[in-house]
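[09:14] KT: can someone run the structure on this one? pasting the chain below
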Amino acid sequence: MRNNETAEQPKGMTRAELLALPAVVDLDTGNRALGLGRSKGYELAKRGQYPCKVLRLGKAYRVVTADLLSLLGLAA
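[09:31] RB: done, structure tokens below
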């Protein structure tokens, strides 16, 4: 891992970033919002144990933003 990679990638997301998300987001964005690592997030999604609703679309996972915001206490 390069030093500049970790310094540039923010941990978590701000409230403004969360509220600006589209209806569904990719699993990496959901992981970032929840503070989960990539491997753990994918592991939970594959086992059906992700902490909010995840859709499987072909080979891709999509996190339902409304469920994500509700879990984080930001539901509108």
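[09:33] KT: thanks! The CA atoms of residues 66 and 75 lie 7 Å apart.
[09:34] RB: yep, looked fine to me
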